[in-house]
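sorry for the late reply, my laptop died twice this morning and i had to redo everyting from scratch. anyway the thing you sent over, i finally got around to it. pasting the sequence first so we're on the same page, its 387 residues, then the predicted structure underneath. double check i copied it right bc i was rushing
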Amino acid sequence: MNDLAPLLTPEGRALLDEVRDTDPAQELAVATRLRREHPAELVSAALGQARLRQRAVVKFGAEDAGRMFFTPNGVEQSTRASVAAYRARRMADLGITSVADLCCGIGGDAIALARAGIRVLAVDRDPQTAAAARANADALGLAGLVEVREAEVTEVDTAGFDAVFVDPARRGGRGRIFDPEAYSPPLSWAVSAARRAPRAAALKIAPGIPHEAVPEDAEAEWISDGGDVKEAVLWFGTEPGAVRATLLPGPRTLLSRGLPDPAVRPPGRYLYEPDGAVIRAHLVAEVADRVGGGLLDATIAYVTADALHPTPYATAYEITDHLPFNVKKLKALLRERRVGTLTVKKRGSAVEPEELRRKVKPQGPHAATVFLTRVAGAPAMLIGHPA
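ok and here's the structure:
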């Protein structure tokens, strides 16, 4: 799909409605039938857009995805709607009324900001991407709050806006880019733009960014949604030096208190697996403090404790067995317990979960979870179940 314009015509929109629920296995037959009445290029574009909309449901929900327009990269790289909505609420709570959204993509963040009542200038240099963003603002009834501009973001004057939001491209021809200065635009430029914003700014970055790369005058926030880490955000104009992990839905936010690393201790009755955002934010110590626990190993983010203290920032498991790593012993124990459903989790182990399942061949009506990890440096297996 190289041009959205034909899909925005009455014929194109009608065709999109007709093919919206097309099963991929039936595409060839549907295309053959439709090409008798419509141009082949339009049919191909409509079917391609239908596929993209189906893929986008997981990020935008069925209702919005069914009305929006996407590019392949736009589906892949756009922010999940729940995360964008959370960030927009933070902006609104800061009293922000206008935002320059730089590197806006297909407009996911601009849509969330507009729905929070914020006026948005959405900028992207790619013509097709900007066209999709414009079409999406119109399709969702937000064109009055969203102006889309096709331009180089480094050349846009943002002086008339309360805040700046920058989502630099973090993918190139060879895949993901890990060096922040290789982002497009580079992180250093984005930070400079953020510092010039009158009220506040937010920079979306990869969650794997080294903590030492976070500017001293920025707040760093790691966000997960449904347990999956989605992004990190550098905030300017909020709480310089603050570090937080935010879990969606909720939101639930855990702030750093600068605690020292927890002590290593023997396995207790419970094991706590911190949320990925908590781990990325280096807040395992805060979780350990909340549950009165310590670490199984100084280098691994598993917390162990003697008592159950439910917390939204970690999943608790009751541990029934602690064994040195030994596949034969594990197989015998699972056979004795009649475990047929085995969940394998690992940190600090080279063993692949599927490989282990093939070797132990679980059979039976019961379920268990095995943690492949290290305890005070020694390979170990901890068997249990969700608490």
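Residues 40-65 form the longest helix (26 residues).
thats about all i looked at so far, will dig more tmrw
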